[in-house]
From TrEMBL:
It comes from Acrocarpospora corrugata. One of its GO terms (cellular component) is membrane. It comes from the Bacteria. Keywords: Cell membrane, Membrane, Transmembrane, Transmembrane helix. This is Fumarate reductase subunit C. The chain crosses the membrane at residues 21-41, 61-85, 97-121. The keyword Membrane applies. The lineage of its organism: Bacteria, Bacillati, Actinomycetota, Actinomycetes, Streptosporangiales. InterPro entries: Fumarate_red_C (IPR003510), SQR/QFR_C/D (IPR034804).
Length: 122
């Protein structure tokens, strides 16, 4: 009979980095919800059922879910953009572009695309 040590089910609470990792992975559920919500909106638009969709979307539980989803998706995006330099190494003439420049470029692009979307919707 072999010894198996007891499993620590709350291992991610030991370090802040572990907790952020687990929370980021859980926010993927809210990213999926946002995609489903967008598909439902497009389906309602295609079927001409926008008033019924807006009535459903205006219910308190859907509004609360979307507010939580907005916060979760924002957290997901920020942590993703902050991790980009770990996965992307850019070299220019043998010089490695510093992490802060990659992160700054990512956030600048996010801001520019968001501003463009707001301008188009306005």
């Amino acid at each position: 009979m072999s010894y198996s040590p007891p499993r620590d089910r709350l291992w991610f609470l030991r370090r802040r980095a572990y907790l952020v990792f687990v929370l980021r992975e859980l926010t993927s559920l809210f990213v999926a919800w946002s995609a489903v919500y967008l598909i439902l909106l497009l389906d309602a638009f295609a079927d001409g059922a926008l008033p019924a969709f807006w009535d459903w979307a205006g219910t308190p539980w859907v509004l609360a879910l979307n507010v939580v989803a907005l916060a979760a998706v924002t957290f997901h995006a920020v942590t993703f953009l902050n991790l980009a330099p770990k996965a992307t190494v850019i070299r220019l003439d043998g010089w490695r572009v510093p992490d802060f420049m990659i992160v700054g470029g990512n956030f600048s692009a996010w801001l520019a695309v968001s501003a463009l979307i707001l301008w188009v919707l306005w």
